[in-house]
Amino acid sequence: MDFLRLNQSNLPDIAARLSCPRYDRDAVKTGIVHIGVGGFHRSHQAYYIHQLLEKHKAVNWGICGIGLREADRKINDTLEVQNCLYTLLTQHPNGTVDSQVIGSLTAFILAVDHPAMAIDKMAHPDTRIVSLTITEGGYNFNPSTGEFDFDNPAIQHELEHPDQPKTVFGFLAAALQKRREKGLPAFTILSCDNIQHNGAVARKMLLAFVQKQNASLAEWIEMEVRFPNTMVDRITPVTTATEIRYLKEKYNIQDDWPVVCEPFIQWVIEDNFSNGRPPLEKLGVQFVPDVTPYEKMKIRLLNAGHSVLGIPGAIHGHPTIDACMQDSVFATFMRKFMDKEATPVLGAIQGIDLAAYKDSLEERFANPNIKDALSRICSESSAKLPKFLIPTLLENLANEGSIKYGTFILAAWCYYSDRGVDISNTPIKIIDERKEELHQHAKRYKQDNLSFLRISDIFGRLLEHERFQKEYTKVLAAIYAEPDVRKHMKEIGQID
Ligand code: CS2
To answer: Under CATH, what is the fold of the domain 292-493?
Structure first.
């Protein structure tokens, strides 16, 4: 069967079947260069810009994607065939699916093949923002000290060869240097990753790098480049064959990499830009003087809540977040973690009803049409947990607060990293850059039951707390004695 391939020339035909861009994509200029075009960027920022183009003629704010890694070749090749068009499938809890073709991404550069082209694009006078979704691990800092990691070989290479950038820091420095030489205004660096104070972290890391590479450029960046903090939110599971098939069967359209997401969307940004910004407030984006309470609330409740379900869920054999939520033991455990451990250290957040926020998270997690795989949720836990969960534990230790939910998750993570199988002995798909190191530490628990926690850049100062050590040792032994984590979770959730 011949399907209609999603691309620019087929758009008029496709528009008869589903919602397509009505703006002239050729007239759109690149105002934003985005590094890290994953599903999340395509369901969130690119969707907002698409709406701006559609409803508000914001033709100066089109997006050019950049891929810095070899792993970005697949998105490069897919977007090339599809003229950067893709379908966004919004899955409602009642089964309704909104399908729309998004057109705001108008170009893509694979920097691995074309580094100079990527730098030139960022240094182009039309480019006013460089935004990032490079993941929690992409900021190249030691999680326990918060300092830039100069030992990374790619960073060392860039320091010696500024003309051969490899990481985001090398590329940003090269592009900013070019703008400075040409007398062009700096662009804003807009971090959209789940890190508290993501803009401040991006700034600190970039400056640490550039100070070593080119001190006078660092001074210029300090004066000229703005790094607004942002809170971003939209659950975006990994695309599967189901979505590709759905578009073929329902619309007869071939899109090799659509994106699937929940209906909820939120973006809170500090209004602090170097060189203008798109009028996103027209779409309900919140511009605030200080994003701290929003980002803290989201990371400590939503992202941590995901990990609290995901790690024991993987051991139990639940495939997805919605499957965990259907299991009342998991749902209760997660809510109690939020109420008893995350909320007390969050404090009150002005203008926000935390109870209502947590209720809405429960509903979002339970959406039966968002099959958010635990392999995605648990991926790169070594970068996520130091930001999502461990700060809550440390603060509760300092305040004599409850620690048993969070501690249980760390003990379960040790078991997960050691055994790598679920309770029916099926291997768990573990995706983590530090998988091997985690495994090596976890498996030594018999000789040294705190061995896993000795990866100090992940666990920071947790081990200094005797109360934590005791609780951890107790639950770790319990999990090894009875790997059906659900039983322990039931007990913990009931006693409390
Ligand atoms: C998830 C996030 O990576 C994770 O573990 O918690 O990707 C989450 O789905 C998004 O931050 C939602 O905005």
So the answer is: N-(1-d-carboxylethyl)-l-norvaline Dehydrogenase; domain 2 (1.10.1040)
Measured between alpha carbons, how far is 317 from 332 in angstroms, rounded to an integer? 18
- Residue bearing the CA closest to ligand 1, atom 12: 235
Strand (E) or helix (H) holding 48:
helix 45-56
Chain CA centroid to CA 377, Å: 10
pLDDT in tens, 178-200: 999 999 999 999 999 999 999 99
**Distances in Å between the alpha carbon of 317 and those of 211, 314, 441?**
48, 5, 23
**pLDDT one-digit tens code per residue, 461-471:** 999 999 999 99
Q: Say how far apart CA 25 and CA 111 lie, in whole Å.
A: 23
- What residue owns the CA closest to ligand 1's atom 9? 235
Query: Is 72 near ligand 1, meaning CB less than 6 Å away?
Result: no
Instruction: Quote the CA–CA distance of 59 and 61 in Å, as a whole number.
Output: 6
Question: In the predicted model, is pLDDT for residue 336 greater than 80?
Answer: yes
Give the per-residue pLDDT at 1: 66
Distance 437 CA to ligand 1 centre (A): 24
Whole-number Cα distances in Å, 120 to 36, 69, 124, 182, 465: 17, 18, 6, 12, 51
Q: Is pLDDT at 208 greater than 80 in this prediction?
A: yes
3-state DSSP helix/strand/coil percent for the chain, to nearest 5? 55, 15, 35
Q: Regarding the domain delimited by 4-288, which CATH topology (the fold level of the hierarchy) does it fall under?
A: Rossmann fold (3.40.50)
Where is average pLDDT lowest: 135-139, 168-172, 206-210, 393-397? 135-139
Determine the distance separating the centroid of ligand 1 and the alpha carbon of 213, expressed in angstroms: 34
State the average pLDDT over residues 141-154: 89
DSSP 282: G
pLDDT at 447 over 80: yes
Domain borders along the chain are 4-288, 292-493
Q: What is the pLDDT of residues 21-80, one digit of tens each?
A: 999 999 999 999 999 999 999 999 999 999 999 999 999 999 999 999 999 999 999 999
Tokens of 264: 């909820």
232: closest CA among 30, 34, 87, 41?
A: 41
| Angstrom distances, CA of residue 64 to CA of 81, 229, 232, 344 | 16, 21, 20, 42
Type and span of the H or E element at 386: helix 381-388
Best residue among 43, 377, 431 to mutate for probing ligand 1's pocket (most ligand atoms within 8 Å of CB) is 377
